[in-house]
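Continuing the series of single-chain predictions for the mutant panel. This is the parent chain; the variants come on the following pages.
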Amino acid sequence: MSSANPRVPRVLVAGIGNVFLGDDGFGSEVARRLAAEPLPENVTVTDYGIRGMHLAFDLLDGYDVLLLVDALPHGAAPGDVTVLEVGEEDLGSGEFDAHGMSPVAVLGSLGSLGGRLPPRTFVVGCEPADVGEGIGLSPAVAAAVQTALSAIRVLIPGDPVDLTSIAKGV
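Parent structure:
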């Protein structure tokens, strides 16, 4: 009698943003800091910046969970971190730009690139204070990096788990 070994889900943490536009570089900074930490073998961290095509092709490698980290303007106080789960119904359509980053368009394009539906996807977003030209995060957004890292650590499954349980505690 053999027992099947549960598979550890493959996780991609994708930092998104333009470091030349102030707080829009939030995702890139979080990815840089997370990549410097010891992580489970099933986790890949990449700073995609504005390279949407690169993210789309990497997603074709069969990740089970995608954590998008980005500036997320939605009317909250600067530095507020929000975690959202993105479903297929949220994708809609977006114009895919090979030289830009629109996460909705990237995820929506996977089928046309020969892939399957997007993996289970979460957005770890931070309300920006300033996305004008300039390098560096505002004080409120820089302080939120640690909060985002904590949220990501909760979302990363380290042991074989049921994917429906990974968002608990967020």
